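Worked example 2:
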Amino acid sequence: MGTVATVDGTEIYYKDWGPRDAQPIVFHHGWPLSADDWDGQMLYFLAQGYRVIAHDRRGHGRSSQSAAGHDMDTYAADVSVLAEALDLRHAVHIGHSTGGGEVARYVARAEPGRVAKAVLVSAVPPVMVKSESNPGGLPIEVFDGFRASLAANRAQFYIEVPSGPFYGFNRPGAEVSQGLIDNWWRQGMRGAANAHYECIKAFSETDFTEDLKSIEVPVLVAHGTDDQIVPYEDAGPLSAKLLPNGRLKSYEGYPHGMLSTHPDVINPDLLAFVKE
């Protein structure tokens, strides 16, 4: 565990576990969380002999609460700094939600030899917000509502999101985990309000279409059909079609936070893709 400094002096916190000569797997977290959201996957892949790395995005978790740079270009540039500092080669980059957008932007621009494969889980690409070119997207008013709720009472908002749509705990018969809700809140409240507020624009309005088209390495797109945060039809299937070497794996009835609610299913599927 340590930090690396980016070009503007922001300190990016990261975890780095496992043999240094093993293939690295790099995990990119969702909004407004931290590297801790990947504990289950990091321990799983560590036990399989991989080197596992996860960082806190700028303004999130233990990284610097920077005044600027809360956009996908900067997020990807920060990952490049981390990859260079740790000399990561032939890595597998796995991103969840906003982290999936970060992966798409980084992998599309990565130096040759840095990336072997990528995985987008419940990820925001190609683009979330509704427009003439993306009629199936969510109206901008949805994201305006996120911003208003965050500004009005961030602590309460960060209880309502995991208690309801994020993990599908608002569905009839759902098995609610108070631990997941509390851990989501803990991670979120450790980050900076300004970074989280500005990141809403980054994850909702960034168009990753050209990034996806340019990625040549194999990419697995994993998405639950009952995702209430990043709706399935306007995300997973569209991303898989844009990727030259993409593959879609759908999970019937799974929620946005399926990595935490169904790790017994998702983790082996990720491992199988990494091993191919």
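The longest strand covers residues 11-17. The radius of gyration is 17 Å.
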